[in-house]
TrEMBL record:
Residues 8-43 form the MYND-type domain. One of its GO terms (molecular function) is zinc ion binding. Transmembrane segments: none annotated. Residues 290-322 are annotated as: Disordered. The keyword Metal-binding applies. Coiled coil: none annotated. It holds the Pfam family zf-MYND. Residues 303-322 have a biased composition (Basic and acidic residues). This is MYND-type domain-containing protein.
Length: 322
């Protein structure tokens, strides 16, 4: 969201615009310095991403897996009751369905500041490769760098974040363009992990709120998405779910997911082995090195060479020629 007033991003006192991006306010150089560690990741790229390159596009934040540099990107808006970016081949291929199948994508969304619990101006949704827990995906270096340490969620491969404006019931849920001011809450959310800020809980909260609730259709679609995910793994929801009300339905899906997570955990080592067999040797070696040394850097030229061989990645995720 573009700045509505001139509030300092750190302390909320009146402030002046950041001279390079003109997208965020600071009251003084102390607050600016405090925020720079996070703000610098997006400040300079905002300049190129100020205006959409065409109609019907939304600005999202991209967290590449192979570099610490974040970027804004304009993606086409996928029309529908709840607008979202048309991510196309963004997440690449290769998943539990097979090496050449499109990656399954999962998402979590939040409307509250993970630290303070204060409601945000808009909902933020984070999309990521669904199989990150057990498909051997490489940890996202951008996310790791942003949080400054191992991320509880261990998001892997490219990750993207987009925004939606909450609507009254039966209204379409519109998208909104993210900007540099969104990064701090996204960082806090990454650092806390899924299990303290689950979307099921937030949706349930919203369901119970008397005012300002999200479109019920969107929640219903979310529960259907979860069901579809489960189905792709040969797991069928109990048939009586079809007759449940929305709230009970969300609770049932959540409970079923927990059972499923426990099963997956038990089978994880076996699955990892079979997936690893189909991964290319270079990726395996790189991943092993990351795990054993705890060193996460994208600077080594070996790693650049390695990425050039990453034919499974979409073109834009291969390293750029300088
Ligand atoms: Zn300040
Ligand atoms: Zn700036």
């Amino acid at each position: 969201m573009a700045p509505i007033d001139n509030q300092c991003a750190i302390c909320s006192k009146p402030g002046k615009l950041c001279a390079s991006c003109e997208n965020v306010h600071y009251c003084d150089s102390v607050c600016q310095k405090t925020d720079w560690k996070v703000h610098k990741l997006l400040c300079h790229t905002f300049e190129d991403s100020r205006e959409p390159p065409g109609p019907n596009m939304m600005r999202v934040i991209v967290f590449p897996f192979n570099t610490t540099k974040l970027e804004f990107r304009w993606l086409p808006i996928k029309p529908g009751k709840t607008q979202c970016p048309d991510f196309g081949s963004f997440f690449g291929v290769g998943s539990m369905l097979g090496a050449n199948k499109p990656a399954l994508v999962d998402f979590r969304s939040f409307v509250q500041d993970p630290k303070t619990g204060v409601r945000l101006h808009h909902r933020i949704t984070v999309m990521f490769r669904d199989g990150y827990k057990n498909d051997g995906s490489i940890t996202s270096i951008a996310v790791h760098n942003l949080t400054g340490g191992p991320c509880i969620s261990k998001l892997a491969r490219p990750v993207l974040a987009y925004g939606n404006i909450d609507s009254l019931e039966n209204e379409d849920v519109k998208c909104t363009n993210l900007d540099t001011s969104d990064l701090n809450v996204i960082k806090d959310w990454f650092a806390q992990g899924f299990y303290k800020c689950k979307n099921e809980q937030l949706y349930a909260d919203r369901l119970n709120a008397n005012d300002n609730f999200l479109d019920a259709t969107a929640m219903f679609e979310m529960s259907q998405d979860v069901e579809r995910e489960l189905l792709t793994r040969g797991l069928t929801m109990p048939t009586n779910l079809q007759n449940l009300g929305l709230k009970e339905r969300l609770q049932a899906v959540d409970a079923f997911k927990k059972v499923w997570d426990a099963k997956i955990k038990a089978r994880a080592s076996k699955k990892q082995q079979s997936f690893s067999a189909s991964m290319d040797a270079d990726e395996l070696a790189w991943r092993k090195e990351m795990q054993t040394s705890g060193r996460i850097t994208s600077q080594s030229s070996d790693y650049t060479d390695h990425l050039k061989r990453q034919t499974r990645l979409p073109e834009e995720y291969r390293p750029r020629e300088k």
